Amino acid sequence: MKIPKQIKLGGQVINVIFDDEMCSRDSVLGQCDNNHNKIILAKNIFGDSIPEDRIERTLYHEITHWILFNCGEEELYKDEKFVDRLSLFIQELVTQNKL
Q1: What is the rounded distance in angstroms from the CA atom of residue 11 to the CA atom of residue 1?
Q2: Phi/psi at 77 (5° precision)
Q3: CA–CA distance, 92 with 12 (Å, rounded to integer)
């Protein structure tokens, strides 16, 4: 999957950017910035290259955070285990059915 520069969701445009420095500083592979409609991803962290499939998985994870936040589901938004599991199902739905 080619990582898009923008995603349209919920009537909004979410910019997808790569920022290895920020992700390394925060020790994360990605981050959802709801206040600025951005999803930030890393291609490299701590000098190590991140595999393409892991970047894609992280994108789906951050999209799931964005959806939950914008649905007003603050508790679920903060639940990393829930977000990770739900995002895997969403990723599988999209990729296995070529949506």
Answers
A1: 23
A2: -55, -35
A3: 24
CA distances from 31 to 12, 80, 97 (A): 18, 12, 26
Domains of the chain are 6-96 (1.10.10)
What is the distance, to the nearest Å, from the Cα of residue 49 to the centroid of all Cα atoms in its chain?
Answer: 17
User: Residue 99 gets which letter from DSSP?
Assistant: -
Query: Which single residue is written with the structure tokens 């979410």?
Result: 14
The CA distance from 7 to 47, in Å, is: 28
| Residue ranges of the chain with per-residue pLDDT less than 70 | none
pLDDT score at 86: 98
48 pairs with which residues across the strands?
45
pLDDT score of 35: 93
Q: pLDDT digit string (tens) for 70-96?
A: 999 999 999 999 999 999 999 999 999
Distance in Å from the first CA to the final CA of the chain:
12
